[in-house]
Every structure is written in C-alpha cells, then in structure tokens.
Design brief:
The chain is of the alpha+beta class and 241 residues long. It has helices at 15-29, 41-48, 52-64, 93-99, 118-124, 166-174, 192-198, and strands at 68-71, 75-78, 104-114, 130-139, 142-152, 178-189, 205-215, 220-229. A hairpin with a 2-residue loop joins strand 4 and strand 5 (142-152). The chain is elongated, with a radius of gyration of 21 Å.
C-alpha cells in the first residue's frame, strides 16, 4: 500500500483511504512541498477519477493525521512535519527542528512576570515571582507548538534578547549548563488560546506535555507546558532491555 499510485475499484481498501494514501505518498516523495497551497477538490477529482465525496473524506483523513492543515480564511496547506523525539539527548525544540532539516521560527505572544500558581511553584520549588514566556514555535513558518515556559525570577530575562532558544539564552546569559529534563506527555483539547495560536478549531485534540529541566547543580530552572498540533507533533520513545 505504501507504493500506491492509482485508485483501484477492485481493491478491498476503501476508495477514500486509497486516495489519502496516494496523497500522503506524494507529500513524502516531495510532489507536494510543506507549506504549499494544496490542490482543489475539483483537481483531485479529475486526476484520480473518484467522486467529490470520496475526495472530501480523504482530505478529512489527511487533516486528522496532520498531512494537510486547514488555515481559516486562507485554504488548505501541505504539512508533513511529524516531529518526534527518539533520542535521550536533552535538546531544545530549536535543536530538534534543525536536526529534522526544518527551519525553526518563533512567534512571541507574551513575556511577563507574575506570582506563580501552586503547580508552577511546586515544579520549580520556588514561590517568589516567576518569568513567563508564551510562544508559538513554527517549522518553516507552520505553527507547530504553543509553549508556556516558567523560570524563577532571579534570572535576568530580556524578552527582545531571547532569540530562538530559551535554553541557549539561559546558558549564554546566565551561565547555566542544562543537564536533565523530565517529560510527561498526554492529550488535551484546544482551548481558545491554544486554538488561536495553532490555527486550529477550539476543542480539537492536541498533544499535551510538560517538561521540567534542571541545571548542573540539580536546580529545576525551567517548567514548560506545551501543546502540539495533533498529527504534526509527537513523542516517540525507544525502550531497551
């Protein structure tokens, strides 16, 4: 099925899924480039010789699995970035994206200070004022992850100087060496803020994660809460015995 090129009515696989597999293969092979405006339903209908309803069902399947992205008011775009984590190395998202051959980007939403919630205070083991950084991380311009990062208030944080990587900023400006992180991964539904940040509908499923990162002295110096676009952002763990 991975080499499927044409739709066959003699194939027991549903027509819509044959269509979605053909398009997925074309995206993987580079026929459609990430970020490109995708073909119209009429174009696909003529090329693959199937009904409009079959095309729509295939497109819905591809959207659910992250191969296509609907941007409200703009159209449907190609999105083939399935970012996964298979190494035990502590990497920033910027480093992960570059390892995948993607160009990382950042859209700053807010940088401010506040008194921590009970959750944040417990995770950082710090009850005084904290820095909060809210950002949308992009891959080649496509919104990928909405992240909120909390840092103890004793750090010097200047929003305009942070750049692409908070990790690199802390290491270069505050003399830290980040050595370990703990990830907790789950699922959630996008609230209004997440939906607007990731250009998805409110209530759509997202990959939810938290990450606590410690420095060379064992202090927890970053607590992160992130929400990744389902189908594009995933965690893959390799377990050996």
């Amino acid at each position: 099925m991975s080499n499927m090129k044409v739709v066959s009515r003699d194939n027991p696989i549903p027509l819509y899924f044959q269509v979605s597999q053909i398009i997925e293969n074309e995206i993987k092979e580079g026929t459609f480039k990430p970020g490109d405006l995708f073909s119209t339903e009429e174009e696909l209908q003529k090329r693959l010789n199937v009904s409009r309803s079959t095309i729509r069902k295939a497109i819905d399947d591809l959207k659910k699995r992250g191969w296509l992205i609907q941007q409200v008011g703009k159209g449907t775009f190609v999105g083939s970035y399935h970012l996964n984590k298979t190494k035990s190395l502590l990497l920033s998202l910027t480093e992960e994206l570059r390892e995948k051959g993607m160009e990382p980007g950042t859209k700053y939403l807010k940088v401010f200070t506040e008194n921590p919630s009970i959750e944040v205070a417990e995770q950082l083991n710090y009850e005084k004022e904290v820095h909060v950084i809210k950002r949308v991380r992009t891959a080649d311009g496509i919104p990928l992850v909405f992240i909120t990062q909390y840092l103890p208030g004793y750090f010097k944080i200047i929003g305009e100087e942070i750049g692409e990587s908070v990790y690199k900023y802390l290491e270069s400006k505050n003399g830290l060496h980040l050595v370990e992180s703990i990830h907790v991964v789950g699922a959630a539904e996008a609230d209004k803020e997440i939906a607007e940040a990731l250009h998805i509908k409110e209530g759509e499923p997202v990959v939810a994660f938290t990450r606590t990162t410690s420095d060379q002295s064992g202090r927890t110096v970053i607590y992160e809460k992130g929400f990744g676009k389902a189908g594009l952002y995933e965690y893959r763990l390799k377990v050996t015995r």
